[in-house]
Specification:
CATH topology: Endonuclease, Chain A
Distance between the termini: 28 Å
Mean pLDDT: 92
CATH architecture: 3-Layer(aba) Sandwich
Shape: globular
Number of helices: 5
Radius of gyration: 16 Å
CATH class: Alpha Beta
Order of helices and strands: HHEEEHEHHE
Strand content: 5-15%
Helix content: 40-55%
Low-confidence stretches: none
Number of domains: 1
CATH superfamily: VSR Endonuclease
């Protein structure tokens, strides 16, 4: 299947996609702030630069886009029909980097919450409540996906 836009247009479109302050990340941030939780954003001193860090609770939160982080079995994580080898390699590298960062954070004693974009898209209120519940629970890890 051929792309419906020129390579130059596609390149320009892809270059505008942000890595910070995404809609899913902003949803989580607003919800937690509204509940009284205070956090730091993308601290440079932690492996993988989690999207949110709650030092008081020793919780690191990653808000992953299903496409960019290769969410297995998710309908939002399809590999593009053009340049398949490039995208497969890129997403595989992202997944490996994510796994390494998570392992390092756990070794440093951080609790991890991984919130997938699909969970926020398909069941936003339940997902946001689960994030808040996890923070105060003391559990070591949670992954929220649909």
């Amino acid at each position: 299947m051929a792309d419906i836009v020129s390579p130059e247009t596609r390149s320009r479109m892809m270059s505008t996609i942000r890595g910070r302050d995404t809609k899913p990340e902003m949803l989580v941030r607003r919800h937690l702030h509204g509940l009284g939780f205070r956090y730091r954003l993308s601290p440079r001193d932690l492996p993988g630069r989690p999207d949110l860090v709650l030092p008081r609770h020793k919780v690191a939160i990653f808000v992953h886009g299903c496409f960019w982080h290769g969410h297995d079995g998710c309908r939002f994580a399809t590999v593009p029909a053009t340049r398949t080898e490039f995208w497969t390699a890129k997403i595989a590298a992202n997944k490996a980097r994510d796994a390494a960062a998570e392992e390092k954070l756990r070794a440093l004693g951080w609790r991890l919450a991984i919130v997938w974009e699909c969970a926020l898209r398909l069941d936003q209120s339940r997902t946001l409540q689960r994030v808040a519940d996890f923070i105060v629970s003391g559990e070591p890890t949670i992954e929220m996906a649909v």
